[in-house]
């Protein structure tokens, strides 16, 4: 049975390298800067360029959302905002939710921060929320992200052909999922630069 109160509580999740905290107004400036980064927009397939007021309102409204979990990723050592993630599209009847993560700059890729953030989120999703399945989609060209998701227990279960049109080229998206029963038997993947 899914525990919806765990979505409303907006937890802080702490790992060795990252701390996940409720996304709020204090993260608006850093999140806005990330939305302007063309490479981050390409990796996430985001065509829209958001204005500052939109990002401000988004961050202001996150603590009041009772049907999803939005967390800021903070680097433990420096206290810097390095990205954000969400568990959304929660389907309580089927004990399932979608997962989304975006690091705020390419400089943070390859340091294991996204991997640890994903691992902490899956622990919360399966352990506290009571989810059975967490799914995501990732563009097939984003090999680094695919490797991280695989290391955290996601498996490819399908392909959306030509799902993204970016600068005149079409790209497939992979649908991946992690199941609680499989995740429970895993240990945190060793650091390997992903």
UniProtKB/TrEMBL annotation:
Keywords: Transferase. Residues 18-181 form the N-acetyltransferase domain. It comes from the Bacteria. GO terms for molecular function: protein N-terminal-serine acetyltransferase activity; protein-N-terminal-alanine acetyltransferase activity. One of its GO terms (cellular component) is cytoplasm. InterPro entries: Acyl_CoA_acyltransferase, GNAT_dom, Ribosomal_N-acetyltransferase. PANTHER family: ACETYLTRANSFERASE, RIBOSOMAL-PROTEIN-SERINE ACETYLTRANSFERASE. This is RimJ/RimL family protein N-acetyltransferase. It comes from Haloactinospora alba.
